[in-house]
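G., before I forget:
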Amino acid sequence: MFFEGSEKKIEIIVNSDAKCLRSLGKTYWQSLVNKANADIISVVSNQSCDAYLLSESSLFVWSNKFIMLTCGGTTLVDALQAFIESYGIDNIAFTSFQRKNEYLSHLQKTTFEQDIKSLRKIIDGKAYRLGHLDSHHHFIFHSGKPVAEKTTDKTTELLMYHIRGEGARYLRSNVQTTEGIRALFQLDAILDGFIIDDFVFAPFGYSMNAIKGEYYATLHITPQENSSYVSFETNLDLEREHPHILTRLINCLNPGCWDIVGFNTQPEGHFARDVNCLSHCTLSLSTDVEVLFRYYQHVTHETQTPEAM
Amino acid sequence: MFFEGSEKKIEIIVNSDAKCLRSLGKTYWQSLVNKANADIISVVSNQSCDAYLLSESSLFVWSNKFIMLTCGGTTLVDALQAFIESYGIDNIAFTSFQRKNEYLSHLQKTTFEQDIKSLRKIIDGKAYRLGHLDSHHHFIFHSGKPVAEKTTDKTTELLMYHIRGEGARYLRSNVQTTEGIRALFQLDAILDGFIIDDFVFAPFGYSMNAIKGEYYATLHITPQENSSYVSFETNLDLEREHPHILTRLINCLNPGCWDIVGFNTQPEGHFARDVNCLSHCTLSLSTDVEVLFRYYQHVTHETQTPEAM
């Protein structure tokens, strides 16, 4: 059973005088999520944010910003185009669209090149690939327009591949529960005070959204033996205030390799000695946002079993 | 300018009482090469082998064996099916079909999965992937039928990516010549006594076939800055008799990473200290052939420049 966990992601910041995004309501967001071929499973809210758990990932809506992540064969770029058309391009301060390293690009409905070709018909923007094509890499498109108010949000994305050991075995088992997974990661401790909304898929797979004030965190697990992929993302400051979170997640899942993408932050975990940063790339967006891409791998000689097809 | 250098490869061994493959003649082989969407550029022969240089790689024909390599958007599996149908499956002792790590799988006309689905309609066989999907990997299909006579041919394939330095700059320049490239690699020394047939493509790119008795060597260079790929393949014994060849090629091109695939051989170059084997995989084919796949990379922290799209 193969599932392409690697996400696509939209981030939109709207002008301060534009319509509040939360006021658009659940029906609006449901319809936008459907454009990407995903569905809303549940929602939790606090005074700042509505966090929607999707059939394939997550949507977080603040009054002036939203983030939408989808994985598998979803068509997130369609949702982005629909949003720009319905909300009005003049009301949008910042747009970014990311596609993460994919296992099997030919199974995707479109390529990143095709996506940016469509996007450029309605919005100016620059696009980049961070990392080599034959290795882990990351695509990003962002609107060229400078943001009136400087964006200082720090966001960290951790993408883990080839999870191994006891944690991985539990996540592939049929006895897993939301409580068990929360305990595995000590989520109550690392996301202290957060409202947590999570879901275990059948036969396996886990999604979690968490919010606390303006902060969010999201965790998505596709544990399949030969294509395991776990992503974690948050706007908590993992560089200075919560450096143990990356270390905790990595120690828990013992991934063979992982990527870190940082926006305005350069978080470093405390990794084992045999871990090496094989690729490092930074990019300054014209909007004063600094993007960091790092690809880490255990350098220990890995003996693999051939995969029968 | 993007070109998918990574090859596909067929190897066929026919029964000792079957029709001599060389006697099928150039017209037959021309027509087979056309099935893969390639063309013959030139041919050299000795008492054992006809070596055809193709518009996209190479074909070597011995009396009881042939090897055909093609790259780019070629459809090598169509040539393999046409050969099996015209020559007769009962006359074939061993079939293998390989596809190497591709940069952009969605630009290929078919996937390996589709290829083996077509092949299995006319020939029984086992298929494997060596190496992780999100990293360098190698696909191989081979006929399950045991070979009557044990195959002890040693074959080494060296696939180099991200070539750098003076050699790489020369190969990307417009002053390159076949003589200059032979000198760069000291081909006359490392392939002492071989008949060499080579060709420089416009604006760049190089292909070489070489034969000496039963031995062959072939070198293909696609030097493009952001997708450079150089492949070398030979049935010389690089493990015991010619260990310096791998080292020479790697030192000349200083690739960021490379794969070694060995059939009945486990060659090791003498690499720099900061080179690590990131993936190692072996496979015993039912035909007593041992396949080795190794992926090497410089572990030095590589700072990359974002690639604008």
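Residues 150 and 288 of chain A are 7 Å apart (CA to CA). The helical segments of chain A are 25-35, 76-87, 112-119, 166-172, 178-185, 187-190, 244-253.

More on Monday.
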